[in-house]
Amino acid sequence: MRGFSFIGRASRAFHDYPSLSKLLVLVTVSSGGLVAYSETQSELGTHSGQASKIEPKKKKIVVLGTGWAGTSFLKDLDVTKFDVEVVSPCNYFTFTPLLPSVTCGTVEPRSIIEPIRNIMKKRGGEIKFWEAECVKIDSANKKVLCRSKHGKDLVGNAEFVVDYDYLVVALGAEVNTFDTPGVKEHCHFLKEIEDARRIRRNVIDCFEKAVLPTLGEEERSTNLHFVIVGGGPTGVEFAAELHDYIQEDLVKLYPMVQDLVKITIIQSGDHILNTYDQRISSFAEQKFQRDGIEVQTGCRVTGVSDRAVTVKVKSKGETSTIPYGLVVWSTGLGTRPVVRDFMEQIGQTKRRALATDEWLRVEGCDNVYALGDCATINQRAVMEDISMIFKDADRDNSGTLTVEEFQDVIDDIIVRYPQVDLYLQSRHLRNVADLLKDSQGRNRKEVDIEGFKSALSHVDAQMKSLPATAQVAAQQGAYLARCLNRIKECEVNPEGPLHFGESGRHQFRPFQYKHFGQFAPLGGEQAAAELPGDWVSIGHSTQWLWYSVYASKQVSWRTRVLVMSDWTRRFVFGRDSSRI
Ligand code: FAD
Ligand code: MG
Asked: Is the CB–ligand 1 distance for residue 188 below 6 Å?
């Protein structure tokens, strides 16, 4: 077999590119552009005679955001090789999967956050952190405009400019309200730690209001009606947490109103958890029915007032109003204004997220990378490159491709076009020879270009955008850090030539997502899990798996101990219902 398996050779390929001197020239030339706004640079410029004695200036990486993607990037970056500056309005990292537990006091807010300066300290090196919001990205001039939230209290200017050589955009996303009237004014969101704290206070407010002596029965019921818009994982997990909180703790404290409490989920699709395996979705619906949680599917919320939610049944067009005490809006992701503005600058309109290539480089500008919820990978179609693939694979230039020739390149093809692997898996095809079978299922020894095109004609249908999850964001952060750690060893185009010829190996493998499964906690110490290999696990034992996975995934021993002690406290003493 010829050496098409470039994966093992990739690192060797880096050493085969000893273009450090070329790179230094490049660094010097490109950093010339920074002179305009860098004092240190201009000093270097005026004493250029001494420049050769001075250590080459490290390239500067600016990271926007300290969520899953940004933090994972910082953890894996070799901070000795770069000047690193981080900009985020939050000086902590939030372990978002446990946010629903914070809404009901199962876990305390401080147990799921880690100060970003703690994380930076552990990395050694000198990372600078600015607690500020990025308000504008100017990729043409390689700088970002930032604004401190302490604006009015500052003696100096609250706005400042940070220049960069490489920019890592990890700004996450905001809640999508679909411009539904009244949502921003009256609904709770569940994205940030402050949202969870606010929900916790308001749940207790609803109970305290409902037991006031002046209220009639109808008013009490309204106050105790908790409406959740969106039947995705966050909405479902919050409903389950709230149900447990009410049944295990609050009914003992407010027994006089226990029969009036109601939880309703409004879901526009036909099922809740519709991105999960159908077995999980049906189990969740049946469990919620037994628990008395009402699930209204096929309904869309068209407006929210201070007292009620207006709901339209999609099939019939009928509308009704549902009075509520508290409503939580959890329906999909929207684009942050600073990202939207940047997308307009670089001609990426009519999209929700920044489009990147498979190396996470933002399309349409240089040295800007985007990852996590604010980005989406524009996967390249096999059909776009089919002639080039055929030409490279046909080593003997015979105009036909034999099974052996195809076998030699399949590993490379799968790395560059992951949809090929998904297609092989979905068809349970083990051997590429199966791909080359003719329409009657007969084996073919070789195919011409037309036969090759038809063999791969359905492959691109497997292209899917990656889900907006912590798993994807964290893997992308770690991947990009590994790439940048080795960028000096590489020529200008990190992906190398597209074709698979002798000289053309990928110098960096494109990003490939590994799915480790997903959980859905459903309350009552039961959870469902979708595990790799089409495995589904549901029940009490899965809840214990959930506890162990989420404890192990904590970013530090401090939060791990805090979270585990919160779980123990809840088992022993129940949840704290004080409204503080
Ligand atoms: P984020 O983690 O949202 O980070 C964005 C960062 O950008 C933040 O630090 C923010 O402060 C910062 N920022 C915002 N605006 C600016 C600005 N203008 N300038 C500078 N910085 C800015 N995923 C899973 O895989 N499993 C789960 O169980 C799971 N559960 C979830 C539960 C809840 C309640 C929520 C809300 C999400 C959950 N997710 C889960 C999804 C997961 O949290 C996101 O996919 C993940 O946070 C995306 O990471 P990110 O780094 O792109 O964005
Ligand atoms: Mg041939």
From this structure: no
> Could you tell me which of 428, 383, 422 has the C-alpha nearest to residue 513?
422
CB of 220 within 8 A of CB of 226? Answer: no
Ligand 1 touching residue 470 (CB < 6 A): yes
What is the Å distance from ligand 2's center to 448 Cα?
A: 9
150 falls in which pLDDT band (50, 70, 90)? Answer: confident
Q: The domain at 183-331 falls in which architecture? A: 3-Layer(bba) Sandwich (3.50)
Closest CA to 184 of 194, 175, 196, 193: 175
The yes-or-no answer to whether 21-38+56-173+335-379+465-491 and 382-462 have a common fold is no
Tens digits of residue pLDDT in 78-118: 999 999 999 999 999 999 999 999 999 999 999 999 999 99
Helices H / strands E in the chain, number of each: 21, 26
454-478 tens-digit pLDDT: 888 889 988 888 999 999 999 999 9
| CB of 473 sitting under 6 A from ligand 1 | yes
Q: Is 134 in the pocket of ligand 1 (CB under 6 A)?
A: yes
Q: Which two tokens stand for residue 459?
A: 């492959």
Amino acid at 379: Q
Task: Tokens 């039961």: give the residue.
Answer: 526
